[in-house]
Amino acid sequence: MQKYFEKISGERLFLSPENPDDAALYTKWLNDPAVTVSLGGYAKVFSLPRTEREMREAVSRDHSYAIVLREGERLLGNIDFRDVDHLNGKATLGIFIGEEADRGQGYGAEATRLMLNYAFTTLHLHNVQLEVFSNNAQAIACYEKVGFKISGRRRESVFIEGGFVDEIYMDILDSEFLRNE
After folding, report:
1. Among 17, 43, 69, 168, which residue's CB has the most CB atoms within a 10 Å radius?
2. How confident is the model at residue 41 (pLDDT cuts 50, 70, 90)?
3. Has residue 163 been placed in a domain?
4. CB atoms within 10 A of CB 81
């Protein structure tokens, strides 16, 4: 049986609808502090039933995709749009790469470019935003590489590993993305 379906195609990756069979792996990642600290979910506990339920709910309300490495069709992480507002042409992007060895390989940038192309050409959105913590320099560099710009900052608003960090808001407009292609 086929596990992934190539919905959005990239060079090294493709984005597929999430497969419920991956709930155990998602649960592992969502309980890994290295993943959840940067997502703001470190204090949350994810059980397999909770992850399965959230995956089912995400499919019905969000544009949520598995990031799949083309070679070997290996699951790398997840990328999604939340709060899609078609009237105003905006959405919020979220992404994570599950395994430490897969971070820093350019997979996040490629997946983000794929989602932005989908946002601006298929969904006809105008503005995509995201939130990132100021202590996540690698993610900020990735987002800037793709074309996101800092649009705001909430100072010392998140307590991580013994200290407060800023929430940074970044966004990109459809016209800016097209210039970055």
Report:
1. 168
2. low
3. yes
4. 20
Nearest alpha-carbon partner for 99 in 117, 73, 78, 123: 78
Q: In what order do the strands lie in the sheet with 90-97?
A: 8-9, 13-17, 63-69, 74-85, 90-97, 127-133, 163-173, 149-160
Q: Which residues form the domain of 116?
A: 8-179
CATH of residue 13: 3.40.630.30
Q: Tokens 């996040």 identify what position?
A: 108
Query: Residue 33's beta-bridge partner residues?
Result: none
- Cβ 112 vs Cβ 142: under 8 Å: yes
The C-alpha R_g of the chain, in whole angstroms, comes to: 16
Q: How many domains does the chain have?
A: 1
Percent of the chain at pLDDT above 70?
A: 93
Gap between the Cα atoms of 132 and 140, Å rounded: 7
> Quick one: average pLDDT of 166-174?
97
Predicted confidence band of residue 43 (pLDDT cuts 50, 70, 90) = low
Closest CA to 11 of 96, 72, 70: 70
User: In this structure, what are the phi and psi dihedrals at residue 44, rounded to the nearest 5 degrees?
Assistant: -85, 150
User: Is 1 a domain residue?
Assistant: no
Assess if residue 2 is contained within a domain. no
Distance CA 154, CA 118 (A): 29
Write down the pLDDT at residue 57: 80
